[in-house]
Amino acid sequence: MASLETMFNVRGKSVIVTGGASGIGRAYAEIMAEQGARVCIFDIDPTGLDRTVAEIGGDCWGQIVDVGDRPGMAAAFDAVVARHGRIDTVFANAGIDPGPGFMTPEGERNPAGAIEAIPDEQWDRGIEINLTSVYTTVKHAVRHMKPQGSGEIIVTSSIASLINESIVGTSYMPAKAAVNHFVRHMAMELGAYGIRVNAILPGPFITNIAGGRLRNKADRAAFEAQSLIGRIGDVEDIKGLALLLASPAGAYFTGSLIVIDGGSLTRMT
Ligand SMILES: NC(=O)c1ccc[n+]([C@@H]2O[C@H](COP(=O)([O-])OP(=O)(O)OC[C@H]3O[C@@H](n4cnc5c(N)ncnc54)[C@H](O)[C@@H]3O)[C@@H](O)[C@H]2O)c1
User: Fold this and answer.
1) Which range of residues forms the domain containing residue 211?
2) How far apart are CA 199 and CA 219, in angstroms?
3) Is 100 in the pocket of ligand 1 (CB under 6 A)?
């Protein structure tokens, strides 16, 4: 029987985390680096990236890249291969809150989030970062993983892909729903090449998304009320699942959409 150490071994793996300078992505980077992987973080925020890389230490480094910049992403993947020699695990995680929802957490209509008020550029950026960047990330990961005949791709979706959250910017829901479908489609295409593709669907986690609004009392209370265990997620909660999907213990997962939400979805559906 395999030991725990063998089952969850990611030592020496070449790992990329997009949006790894904060929140859920940082937790992915931390657990992978802590377990001996070589981790490269792609992030648009130079200050956060420097701080995160310094705090994680070990074999962790970063590249400043906007996941919406296609040539920049191609070059960033190539730079990882130049340094690590290969790419084993990619967390396609970067995401944004694309503006206000049509309701406030207090249950009022929010005119700034009404469909007719959404600036087109805001919609486009939401789709670009929350959906199209996942395509770009998977594409460049596969360019390197296919010749190796192995790899794991883990995409951060959201429970907002399965329900409609009126206090979240409108383009977020269709973007994340499309991400789920894309993940399953990629799992179908890539399984024959030894590449597994899965999605993690978090419920509310305290991070810096939307200006860190889950730290505000009203927002926090609205989301806490949804949980079956009375609290919203801490990024530490996501580490075990990330390690599972990136290690031999997760070898039979592909095309899976894995909800991690303290039961919020169960309460709401
Ligand atoms: N926090 C939640 O409640 C929650 C719930 C469900 C899903 N998610 C998803 O989790 C993922 C991570 O979000 P988070 O909550 O940790 O947010 P966060 O804001 O704390 O971290 C996101 C990171 O992505 C980076 N980033 C943003 N735009 C980028 C770009 N264009 N290029 C490169 N990097 C970019 C940011 O600089 C930041 O470091 C997102 O995909 C988000 O949709 C979050």
Assistant:
1) 4-268
2) 25
3) no
Record the tokens describing residue 48, joined without a space: 């956060």
Indicate if ligand 1 lies below 6 Å from the C-beta of 260.
no
How far are the Cα atoms of 63, 146, 236 from residue 79, in angstroms, in the given order?
9, 17, 29
For 180-207, letters b (16+ CB in 10 Å) and e give bebbbebbeebeeeebbbbbbbbbbbbb
* Residue in 22, 140, 154 to alter for ligand 1 test, most ligand atoms within 8 A of Cβ: 22
User: In whole angstroms, how far apart are CA 46 and each of 235, 237, 258, 259?
Assistant: 21, 26, 31, 31
Given a contact cutoff of 8 angstroms between Cβ atoms, the answer to whether 147 and 193 are in contact is: no
55-63 contacts, C-beta under 8 A, 24 or more apart: 56/29, 56/30, 57/33, 58/33, 58/34, 59/33, 60/29, 60/33, 62/20, 62/21
pTM (whole model) above 0.85: yes
CA–CA gap between residue 168 and residue 87 (Å, rounded): 34
Q: Using CA atoms, how far apart are residues 30 and 239, in angstroms rounded to an integer?
A: 8
Q: Write the single-letter amino acid at 20.
A: G
Whose Cα sits closest to atom 23 in ligand 1? 19
For the chain, percent helix, then strand, then coil, each to nearest 5?
50, 15, 35
Q: How many domains does the chain have?
A: 1
- Tens of pLDDT, residue by residue over 206-227, are 999 988 888 888 888 888 999 9
Domain CATH number, residue 143: 3.40.50.720
Residue 224: CB atoms within 10 A of its CB come to 16
Q: Which residues of the chain have pLDDT under 70?
A: 1
| pLDDT given at position 94 | 98
Cβ neighbours around 173 below 10 Å, total:
21
